[in-house]
Here is the input.
Amino acid sequence: MGARDEDGTREPAPSGPMLVHEQERSVRLRIDDVELFRYVYRPWDAQRESPRPYLHPVRTLGGDVVSLFRPHDHVWHKGIAWSLSNVGTQNFWGGRTFTPDRGYVQLDDNGTVRHDGFDELGVRDGVARLDERLSWLAADGERMLTERRLITATVVEGAWRLGFTTTMTNVGPDTVPFGSPTTKGRDNAGYSGLFWRGPRSFSDGGRVLMPGVVGADELMGARGPWLAYVGRHDGHGRSSTLLFRDDPGNPTHPTRWFVRTGQFAGVCPAPFFDTEYELPAGGSLTLRYDVWIADGALDEAACRHLVS
Here is the structure.
């Protein structure tokens, strides 16, 4: 419902995508009467949680929440976030760091991803765009990397698509290796990348789809161009689907996937799953992903159609 002016004229209700900027805190995206996401670019996290921007809550077009914030079992999981576990000697994932000799240990290595500014924040041709500059700071405050990040959102065929593009540049004097706990010796722990933590109800009977495959936790580490996660909500019992696509231009395409359905619902296209990527001084790395957020349980044919 729109507001009424003094002369009785009714303000038209908003339609289409609209960004609402909460200065120095976050950006919210609304389409018609549904808030699809809140992007918190200046978080208030404790340092051990590796403060970094994140999207939460994330909703379907029908208004169902498909993300989880700061669960008690892993308080550093924050909706959808670009979370890297092993960047040189630093941890931009949050929490403890895996070490080959002692396992997981809380070290003084939790870095910060700092928002430096937006170069664009608006809607063009029906596409919401957040073009952002960021700095990656080590635990001691030293700037290791700069980042250009583009987040887009658009409605497509009954769902909406979140686009994520990052270009990270090494501004330090030395090569920086990007890895994961698996590159340090822990089996099947290749998490590091664009990580989504889903609602708790999604871990009860959550289904994973990849080209030609339907499964669950056994797909951990599988390689493929896309992966979809179907879960059911508490309360009304409806389903939602998140479909992740690895861009063909990414250096490890088709990527290996970090996926869990039992302990918790989580997905991460993991470009550093079992092999380190070395970024030389002055070098840049660009990675692109798309995520479709849909009401209902999509099948393989529907997923293939969206990613084509």
